[in-house]
C-alpha cells in the first residue's frame, strides 16, 4: 500500500452544482438585471460625487430565515419610496459570516442551522432571496468572504464589502478587482485606514489569477480592475472612528493617496462599541456632520432587523423568534425608521445650505 500523503484530513467530499446550472435554475429576468444595473449606477454616482444623496446599506447582520428577510425588504421598499430623494437604500443581505473562532457561518454554509452544512441548498436560498429583492426593486449588498461562492450569486448584488478581517488579504483584493459591483473596504480591526486604502489601490489594478468558471472548471481570468472601491470606517478594537476628526483624517489620507475624499461609515462594530443600542447615537452624530456640510461622508451602514437584539441558535430553527438576528444584535424596525428619517433630513439640510456644486468642489470634482 502506498503511503497516504493527500486528503488526510478530508472526512467527506460533496459535489456542488456548476455556477451556470444554478444561474439557469434561478435566473434573473431582464427587468431584474436592468434594476440591478441601475442601482449600481446610482451607487457609483454617489461615490463619485455626481449624486448628493446618501448611500445607506441597512439590514440584518445576517440572513437566517428567508421569510423575515423578505418582509424586511418589503418594508425597506416603502421607506425608499418615501425617502428616495435623499437616500439610496440598499439592503444588507449577508449570507456569509466570518467567525473569530467558531459559530454559525451563515445561510450559505448552514441553511438549516443544524450544523449539517448543505452548501448547495444554501446557495439556492441565497439566489432566491436576492432575486426576490430584485423583484421588489430593493438593491442588495453582501460581504464577499469566500473566493468561490461569488460565482453563484454576485451578479445579483448592487454593493459588496470586504471586511476588516480580510481587507489585507491579497486574494480578496484581486477578487475585488473582478467584481462588477462597487466594493467597500473596511478599515482593519486594529483601526488601520492605510490597509483599506492599499486594498482600494490594488483592487483598481488589473490582475490575473485562478478561479472556477461558470461551468465549474479551473481557469485563469484577467481582470481590468474595479474603479469603484472605497473606504468604510467601522471603528477599531480600541475605539470608534466616526467622529468629525476621524473623518477628516481619513478623507485627508484618501486625498494624499490620490483617491476621492469620499467614505462610508459603519454605525455598528467598533463604532458602536459592539453595543447595537448605540447605533442610533452614532448615526445622529453622522447626521449632524452631514447637516453641517460634510461632503466626505457619502454613505452609512446600519445593522437592523424587524426585532431588536439577538438570539442564540440552540436547536436548529426550532424556538427562534421571528425577525431577530442570530449573529450580531441589531436595532429594531421602529428605531431604523427614525434613523433613516434623521439621515434624510440631514441630507436635505446639507443640500440647502451648501448646494450641490460646492459639494463637488470640496471633494475635488
Automatic annotation (TrEMBL):
Catalytic reactions on record: D-erythrose 4-phosphate + phosphoenolpyruvate + H2O = 7-phospho-2-dehydro-3-deoxy-D-arabino-heptonate + phosphate
One cellular component (GO) term of this entry: cytoplasm
Top-level enzyme category: transferase
Transmembrane segments: none
GO BP terms, alphabetized: amino acid biosynthetic process; aromatic amino acid family biosynthetic process; chorismate biosynthetic process
Span of domain DAHP synthetase I/KDSA: 44-340
Protein family membership: Belongs to the class-I DAHP synthase family.
Record's protein name: Phospho-2-dehydro-3-deoxyheptonate aldolase
Species per Swiss-Prot/TrEMBL record: Rhodoferax sediminis
Amino acid at each position: 500500500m502506498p503511503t497516504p500523503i493527500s486528503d488526510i484530513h478530508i472526512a467527506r467530499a460533496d459535489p456542488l452544482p456548476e455556477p451556470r446550472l444554478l444561474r439557469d435554475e434561478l435566473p434573473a429576468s431582464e427587468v431584474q438585471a436592468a434594476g440591478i444595473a441601475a442601482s449600481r449606477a446610482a451607487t457609483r454616482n454617489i461615490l463619485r460625487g455626481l449624486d448628493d444623496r446618501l448611500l445607506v446599506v441597512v439590514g440584518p447582520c445576517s440572513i437566517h430565515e428567508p421569510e423575515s428577510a423578505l418582509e424586511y425588504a418589503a418594508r425597506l421598499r416603502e421607506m425608499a419610496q418615501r425617502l428616495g430623494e435623499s437616500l439610496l437604500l440598499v439592503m444588507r443581505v449577508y449570507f456569509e459570516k466570518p467567525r473569530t473562532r467558531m459559530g454559525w457561518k451563515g445561510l450559505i454554509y448552514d441553511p438549516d442551522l443544524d450544523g449539517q452544512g448543505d452548501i448547495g441548498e444554501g446557495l439556492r436560498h441565497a439566489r432566491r432571496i436576492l432575486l426576490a429583492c430584485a423583484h421588489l426593486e430593493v438593491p442588495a449588498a453582501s460581504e464577499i468572504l469566500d473566493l468561490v461562492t461569488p460565482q453563484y450569486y454576485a451578479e445579483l448584488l448592487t454593493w459588496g464589502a470586504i471586511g476588516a478581517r480580510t481587507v489585507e488579504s491579497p486574494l480578496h483584493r484581486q477578487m475585488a478587482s473582478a467584481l462588477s459591483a462597487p466594493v467597500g473596504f473596511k478599515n482593519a480591526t486594529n483601526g488601520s485606514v492605510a490597509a483599506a486604502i492599499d486594498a482600494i489601490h490594488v483592487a483598481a489594478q488589473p490582475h490575473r489569477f485562478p478561479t472556477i468558471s461558470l461551468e465549474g472548471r479551473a481557469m485563469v481570468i484577467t481582470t481590468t480592475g474595479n474603479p469603484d472601491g472605497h473606504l468604510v470606517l467601522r471603528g477599531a478594537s480600541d475605539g470608534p472612528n466616526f467622529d468629525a476628526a476621524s473623518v477628516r483624517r481619513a478623507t485627508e489620507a484618501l486625498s494624499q493617496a490620490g483617491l476621492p475624499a469620499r467614505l462610508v461609515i459603519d454605525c455598528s462594530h467598533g463604532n458602536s462599541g459592539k453595543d447595537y443600542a448605540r447605533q442610533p447615537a452614532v448615526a445622529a452624530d453622522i447626521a449632524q456632520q452631514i447637516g453641517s456640510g460634510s461632503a466626505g461622508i457619502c454613505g452609512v451602514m446600519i445593522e437592523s432587523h424587524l426585532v431588536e437584539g439577538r438570539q442564540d441558535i440552540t436547536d436548529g430553527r426550532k424556538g427562534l423568534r421571528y425577525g431577530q438576528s442570530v449573529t450580531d444584535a441589531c436595532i429594531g424596525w421602529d428605531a431604523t425608521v427614525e434613523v433613516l428619517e434623521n439621515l434624510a433630513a440631514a441630507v436635505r439640510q446639507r443640500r440647502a445650505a451648501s448646494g450641490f456644486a460646492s459639494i463637488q468642489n470640496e471633494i475635488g470634482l
